[in-house]
From TrEMBL:
Pathway: Cell wall biogenesis; peptidoglycan biosynthesis. It is an enzyme of class 2 (transferase). Belongs to the EPSP synthase family. MurA subfamily. It holds the Pfam family EPSP_synthase. It comes from Kitasatospora misakiensis. Cell wall formation. Adds enolpyruvyl to UDP-N-acetylglucosamine. InterPro entries: Enolpyruvate_Tfrase_dom, Enolpyruvate_Tfrase_sf, MurA_subfamily, RNA3'P_cycl/enolpyr_Trfase_a/b. This is UDP-N-acetylglucosamine 1-carboxyvinyltransferase. Keywords: Cell cycle, Cell division, Cell shape, Cell wall biogenesis/degradation, Cytoplasm, Peptidoglycan synthesis, Transferase. It catalyses: phosphoenolpyruvate + UDP-N-acetyl-alpha-D-glucosamine = UDP-N-acetyl-3-O-(1-carboxyvinyl)-alpha-D-glucosamine + phosphate. Its main location: cytoplasm. Its EC number is 2.5.1.7. Gene3D superfamilies: Enolpyruvate transferase domain.
Length: 447
């Protein structure tokens, strides 16, 4: 664990001082939002899967603990007591239980949104998944109705309780299934694919999610012999004719959101830095937006080099509109872009209709730093930069509000105290330490 990682995030705050330009190179962790479905996919293969580049963010650790509770065997290299990790520390072998726990204690599933990804593995092991409602970021109503429709298409029975939900596996074999999603939910798309893997039946999925995180799951299934016919409007999956017996090794892609956050932090401080360990296409939408603002970005297959110089700023408006459409911007990119835009000349527009509570969280906290952001609707807002921010006490109400506040704090005059580190750590093992290695003045204060 890094020296900056708080021991008790609920009683610890970060003290962040206005930063000189950040410089240097930094490598991102594996992506939390790709790791979560990939770990759940590993759980339904019926084989041992080595999952590599597992981030140490707490949501991912909760996911692994839930699998263990279900009886899965997790094998990983020993850690050392001095906090230094062996080079193999981010690899875990996931092996299905020979004796599943048919009554697992899944209360921790209520702390993460992605616990819904475990339903197919539970149906496979016990024929029944009884789960608390998922938790995660508090960013508005986050439904699961499309997940339930997916399971019903497979013939499963869904029961809604006040405190959670229960799915019972269809009694007989499932021949083939077509799922037609009304919108491109990432969670429901993964649910359909993993449920098909458990049923061992062909799947046609219309209007699928098109995120790299979902594509990573499709690619992983491909390594187990599934035939995947991908497409933007329709995906077809066919069960393996022959199951390859080569070892299954899945590497989690670099975290595109952490990369964008670091790039925005470098740019916001007028710095110059290299963010490594990414997939170029995954950060493409953010690179285009940064370039539109006049930030120089050199993009490579696994890295991006960012340089901000006020002399090249365009003053053009940034339009960051989150959407599930194939060409749309991932909603999790929006908060760091908003933090950056506060310091960039121009009138900038933001919209996140996917997460109706996101702007409420962000605007309230940026407001404490003295930002003026005009809400146009509950999910759209406009701001004009550059603005002068002043350090204050702020709260990471959700993961991305926390990371956006870190960026804003680096540009605010004086000192900012950031509380709510448990939220930040749900998504990033050590984002403050990464920023510090680029020159940020961030310390941990425990009460
Ligand atoms: C753990 C994880 O990977 N979380 C990501 C996941 O969240 P999340 O699970 O919310 O994402 P989905 O794409 O599945 O859903 C997007 C939105 O659609 C609505 N919805 C979804 C499913 C459903 O059955 N019914 C329903 O109403 C909810 O309001 C939800 O907030 O994808 C989002 C992008 O889409 C990302 O911002 C989140 O970081
Ligand atoms: C919204 C997010 O996470 P979750 O869906 O796990 O709450 C996020 O990663 O920004």
């Amino acid at each position: 664990m890094s020296s900056l990682s708080p021991t008790n995030p609920s009683t610890t705050a970060l003290s962040v001082r206005r930063s000189r330009p950040l410089t240097g190179a930094i490598r991102v962790d594996g992506s939390k939002n790709a790791a979560l479905p990939l770990i759940a996919a590993a759980a339904v293969t019926g084989r041992t899967v080595r999952v590599e580049r597992i981030p140490r963010s707490t949501d991912v650790q909760v996911m692994l603990a839930l699998l263990q509770e279900m009886g899965y065997v997790l094998t990983k290299p020993v850690s050392s007591s001095d906090g230094l990790q062996p080079p193999e520390a981010d690899k875990v072998d996931v092996t299905a239980p020979s004796h599943p726990n048919h009554a697992p204690d899944l209360r921790a599933a209520a702390t993460i949104r992605a616990s819904y990804y475990l339903v197919p593995a539970l149906l496979q092991a016990s024929g029944r998944a009884s789960m608390p409602w998922p938790g995660g970021c508090s960013i508005g109503d986050r439904g699961m109705d499309q997940h339930f429709k997916v399971y019903e298409q497979f013939g499963d029975k869904v029961r809604i309780r006040e405190d959670g939900y229960e799915i019972r596996r269809a009694a007989g074999p499932v021949e083939k299934v077509t799922v037609d999603l009304p919108f491109r939910s990432r969670g429901a798309s993964v649910a359909a694919v993993l449920r098909a893997a458990v049923a061992d039946c062909p799947l046609t999925l219309r209007n699928p999610n098109t995120s790299p995180e979902f594509s990573a799951v499709l690619a992983a299934l491909g390594t187990t012999g599934w035939e995947v016919c991908p497409g933007t409007d329709l995906i077809r999956l066919t069960p393996p004719v022959a199951r390859p017996d080569t070892p299954l090794i899945w590497e989690i892609p670099g975290d595109k959101i952490e990369a964008a956050t670091l790039a925005c932090a470098v740019a916001a401080t007028g710095g110059r830095g290299r963010v490594e360990g990414i997939v170029e296409a995954d950060v493409g939408p953010v690179v285009a937006l940064l370039r539109g603002l006049g930030i120089l970005v050199e993009s490579q297959a696994d890295a991006m080099h960012v340089q901000a110089d006020p002399r090249t700023f365009t003053g053009r408006p940034l339009r960051a509109v989150a959407s599930l459409d194939p060409a749309g911007l991932d909603a999790d990119f929006e908060p760091p872009l908003m933090a950056l835009a506060l310091g960039m000349p121009g009138a900038h527009l933001f919209s996140d209709a996917i997460n109706p509570g996101r702007h409420g969280n962000l605007l309230a906290q940026f407001g404490r730093l003295g930002a003026t952001i005009e809400p146009l609707t509950p999910t759209e807002c406009r701001l004009t930069g550059p603005q002068r921010l002043t350090g204050a006490t702020v709260e990471a109400t959700d993961i991305r509000t926390g990371s956006a506040l870190l960026i804003a704090a680096l540009t605010a005059h004086g000192t900012t105290m950031l509380r709510g580190l448990n939220q930040l750590r749900r998504g990033h093992a050590d984002l403050p330490a990464k920023l510090r290695s680029l020159g940020a003045d961030i310390t941990e204060v425990s009460r």
